[in-house]
TrEMBL record:
Signal peptide: none annotated. This is tRNA (cytidine/uridine-2'-O-)-methyltransferase TrmJ. It catalyses: uridine(32) in tRNA + S-adenosyl-L-methionine = 2'-O-methyluridine(32) in tRNA + S-adenosyl-L-homocysteine + H(+); cytidine(32) in tRNA + S-adenosyl-L-methionine = 2'-O-methylcytidine(32) in tRNA + S-adenosyl-L-homocysteine + H(+). It is found in: Cytoplasm. One of its GO terms (biological process) is methylation. It comes from the Bacteria. Keywords: Cytoplasm, Methyltransferase, S-adenosyl-L-methionine, Transferase, tRNA processing. It comes from Vibrio marisflavi CECT 7928. The keyword Transmembrane does not apply. Homodimer.
Length: 243
């Protein structure tokens, strides 16, 4: 269901881009717009560029943190024009459309887009399961924000229409943990690693980032995450008995 797909715009500074993004969404059948700390008003310019998609702006949810935007999503994809210092699982726009169409048939999905000037921060990018990059001209690869929303939303629509055609297909529906459950797991993991002195609190290094990347790649299912939490709890108990 396309209603399960959230378009999350982070720190947008031009209201016109929000309007154009709303229009881009509506023509592709998407309706859920979330604005994280927008740096502009939802003014006339936004509504003018939205054209007939003003309802998407009116219904947009404005939040002050990314966590709020992502917490109920089982899949988070960040759209980025370039790969950063930390390599991350990448999707082609087409694959992205397919994954989003499949997952949104049973749970909420976020497609995240960055600021006009600076894109998404590394911190924000590390909250994603995947990054998607539109393979544009390498010498001039940065699309206007709303056009990036258009391109990715189009792929989601195409994949959604394909799935509608093949309704009889029997995908196994896997239950994945929600973003907030994953974050709790990471907190637990870090705590145990500090308690057992695998890493030091003062100088944690890159271990947590690398482990986040590992788990993003592996995508533990809800049940698997429960097992991992159980392992951590048993380590904690054992450790406190010994010390
Ligand atoms: N100068 C910024 C570009 C920001 S463009 C940077 O280098 O990151 C605003 C947003 O549009 C980006 O954060 C990204 O979400 C999206 N975007 C622009 N070009 C893109 C591309 N080629 N592939 C994927 N996303 C893109």
């Amino acid at each position: 269901m396309l209603d399960n797909v959230k378009i999350v715009l982070v720190g947008t500074s031009h209201s016109g881009n929000i309007g154009s993004a709303a229009r881009a969404m509506k023509v592709m059948g998407l309706s859920q717009l979330v604005l994280v700390e927008p740096q502009c008003e939802l003014d006339e310019q936004a509504f003018a560029l939205a054209s007939g998609a003003g309802d998407i702006i009116e219904n947009a949810v404005i939040v002050s943190s990314l966590e709020e935007a992502l917490s109920d999503c089982t899949l988070v994809v960040g759209s980025s024009a370039r790969s950063r210092t930390l390599e991350w699982p990448m999707l082609e726009p087409r694959e992205c459309g397919e994954k989003v169409a499949l997952e949104s048939s049973h749970s909420k999905v976020a497609l995240m887009f960055g600021r006009e000037r600076t894109g998404l921060t590394n911190d924000e990018l590390q909250k994603c399961h995947y990054h998607v990059c539109i393979p544009a001209n390498p010498e001039y690869s940065s699309l206007n924000l709303a056009m990036a929303v258009q391109t990715i939303s189009y792929e989601v629509r195409i994949a959604h229409l394909d799935r509608e055609k093949q309704k009889y297909s029997n995908d196994v529906e896997t239950e994945y943990p929600r973003h907030k459950e994953l974050e709790l797991f990471y907190q637990h993991l870090e705590k145990v690693m500090i308690e057992t002195q695998f890493i030091s609190k003062e100088q944690p290094g890159q271990v947590m980032n690398k482990l986040r990347r590992l788990f993003s790649r592996a995508r533990p299912e809800a049940q698997e995450l429960n097992i991992l939490r159980g392992v951590l709890t048993s380590v904690e108990k054992h450790h406190s008995l010994k010390s």
